[in-house]
């Protein structure tokens, strides 16, 4: 015999057990609009517990005009920085009594668009959005009327609410930290050249080099995906060249980890033979060996601000800027020098 699916408990079942009408059950579940005598309310609550009844969230959303859900679209959740920001946003949404629906674009623009349509179709109350390449589908979002906040800098002419960190200035600062050690041959493992954030980070590296009147060697610019594999493959290409830079700026934490792995396979030590810094470090940076010197963004503060912006959204653009900070690890050589001085 074919096994029958379990019966879905309805309000009628609760009403029958409690000896009331379906309308009274609705008043109890929705806390109104009509008052219910305390004894009757308790019978309904006991019946709900006994039957295991769960209110229909979709129906309640249609009645209240809110789904109690937010959407989050990110380029690639495997990126530690993206995952850390997503985690912070998830915690803030839970604190706000909302459920977060995650959409991972996998670095694919078409998939990103499909995710946006899917989340809008589910009538999310708001959307947090970090586009794959800073060319977001703003027209789609504006046409929907759904509140949204961009989690990364985009073209100001788009006139949208966004969080912003000056990535060019941050990249310059972390590169200048390398130069302060006396390194002059500094290369960069950057992101895909067509991505705007990759261009910001390359320009920050160039700014630092030019401010120190150093020659920029085009052979030391290694485009790669923002992944561990990207950093690993960039080093393989680097090793095929005739010379190696003395120091490297890697454009994110994942690239840095892949880079160090590839260098270690060739018995090239960091920072003794090649010093290294990276962008967008996370809590993982301090636990890597060697620990990473990196630029950090205030993810907790950013998540709280993004949540507040979404709740205050009225269709007008709001921009919130955040300061980055340089976190010193072992990969640049700072702590190695300090340890040597201590031994002496």
From TrEMBL:
- In terms of superkingdom, the source organism counts as Bacteria
Keywords noted in UniProt: DNA-binding, Transcription, Transcription regulation
Q: Which SUPFAM superfamilies match?
A: lambda repressor-like DNA-binding domains, Periplasmic binding protein-like I
Q: Does the keyword Transcription regulation apply?
A: yes
Pfam families membership: LacI (PF00356), Peripla_BP_3 (PF13377)
Q: Where is the HTH lacI-type domain?
A: 9-64
Alphabetically, the GO molecular function entries are: DNA-binding transcription factor activity; transcription cis-regulatory region binding
Q: What is this protein called?
A: Transcriptional regulator
Lineage from the top down? Bacteria, Pseudomonadati, Pseudomonadota, Gammaproteobacteria, Enterobacterales
